[in-house]
Every structure is written in structure tokens, then in C-alpha cells.
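QA checklist item 7 of 12: single-chain prediction sanity check.
[x] sequence parsed
[x] length recorded as 333
[x] structure emitted
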Amino acid sequence: MLRLEGILLRKGRFILEIDQLHIREGELCLIVGPSGAGKSLLLRVVAGLVRPESGSIALRGVDSGALPPEARRVGLVFQHYSLFPHLSVLENVAFGLKMRGTPGDDARLGAESMLERLGCTHLADRRPVTLSGGEQQRVAIARALVTGADLLLLDEPFAALDPATRAGCRLELAELRRSLGFTVLEVTHALDEAGAHADRILVLDDGRIVADDPYVELVERPPNLRAARALGLENLLPWDLTGGEAGPVCHVPPSSVTITAPNDPMSPGDLGIPGIVETVEKLGPAFRVRLLVDHHGEPVRLTGFAKSGEQAPSPGSVAMARFHPDSVRPLPD
């Protein structure tokens, strides 16, 4: 569906440099990373709104670097959907067809057909201000797809929604993608919410892709320190804190760490690190516990889980973080 190779783009002091990126047809790929990493800029390059200095862009196996945005069959949906407030839903969806020279009656029929496919026919005469967040999302997607786009570029489309609405919108997007078969490249800061729906996660840091993996693989076994820090992963620990000597920063997945009372018996081979309980959060059948651990006089945060069948540790109390050495992964720079 999409292949980028050797992309180089300078914007002031910032450099976007994508050696290689391949998105397969039908995939949902998330782009995550810190602010200023170049995530939105990458979408604009794919859409043709910004031209790179060098490199190639292929869409559906065809060199598309010289094509204007309207010829790429790519739909771009922004955070606030950018629906025209003075137009009805039907007129919003038909707008893109009219801008491409489609006669008025044909544009209307095309818009009606797309609204029907997305289950939005009942919204046709309403104005955007009267729509819910989920309804606005469907209309924005309909407007993007009606021109023949089969690749959607989503730039934090759910960021302004409340958590419950975001969850519903993500489920709707997943269902639409399954039923209509389009491909999605989405920028998001909400990896914890979006990751489970994605096929792959692209981690962008300072204009470069530093990781490209499925969600579980990425958060449990990050490939390098840059990716782990860009994702904001917990339990990035000094090597000597995990039982070694001098060495790189290590990662221990919180799911591999058990928080217990200090005097509870240890499993054979486990490491035990005492600390002061900072926070306790109930998550389903367990408690998510964050400890403050002393490391040569400096506090280090260590997160793990305590079983809900046992008494929850109290903030300020002493607890023990236990994990097996096999769960410790050194992270190259």
C-alpha cells in the first residue's frame, strides 16, 4: 500500500529522515513518540502536502512522489475533523467530489452512497455542531473515503474526546476498517488506549523511526533505549539495581514485577528490591503499585502488581518488588 525509502526533509533545524517504511494493505499502524518528533510532518509528506528533498514515495506499487495531493487517493483526518460548520453532513461529504469537478447531482449521489455505507444516512441534513464526537468522526471518514481514498491518515483524531467517547470511536473505526478494507496510518499519544487495535507501532524520535513492532512486543521488549524513552515506558532501571555491575540501562516490564510485603517468602532465583510505596491503583483483579527505590541516594521508580486477594500496600509503607532475572533486558542506545 505505502512504501517510503530514503526520505529526507529539513524544516529549519529539524530533519525528518525515514530510511524505509512499508505499510501493507489493510493494516492499522500507529505513529507514536514525543512532541516535536515529526509525526504530523510524516503524514503531510505521505499526503503530498509537503515535498521531501529526496527519497521515493510509492502508493499501491506506483511511484507517487510527483503526484499532487488530490491524485494520491489518500484521506487526511485532523484532530478536530475540520468539518465545515455552515454545511450539512451531506454537503460536507460531497464537498471533496465537487472540488474534483464531479457534477452536483453525481456528487450528491456519491455522498449519499458513502453515508449509507458508513451507517450515517440519518445524519445527512444535520450540521456538524449537532453531532456527537463519534458521529463527527464517521462523517470525517466518509468525506475522506468518498473521493476514492483507501489510505486514511489520522492526525490525533480522538485527542479532544473524553475517554468513554474515545473508546467507542476506536471500536467504530476498527469495525469500519474491517468492513470497508481501508488502510490506516494514525498519529496518537494514547498508546495505552490505541495499541490493542493496531497491527504495528512506529516509534518516531527526533525525525527517525527507532522502533517498528507489534504493541505487546514493543512495551514488553523495547528494542532500544531511545524507543523506550520515546514511549515513556516505566521501569527503565540502572543495570546495577537489577543485580549486575556496570552496564546499560535495563527494562523490566511491570507485568513481570510482583509487589509483596517485605517478609513474604521469595521464589527461587527471584531478585528482591525494597522500596517505599508511592502510589496504589486498583486495576481489575490486581493493584498497580509504584515504589520509590533508593539507588546511591537517588530515588528510582519501580512499578509492579500486587494481587487483589491480598491486602493492598499503603502509600508510605515498605514493600518488596520481586522479579526473575530472565525478565531483565539491557537496552542498547
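[x] summary fact logged: The chain has a mean pLDDT of 89.
[ ] second reviewer sign-off
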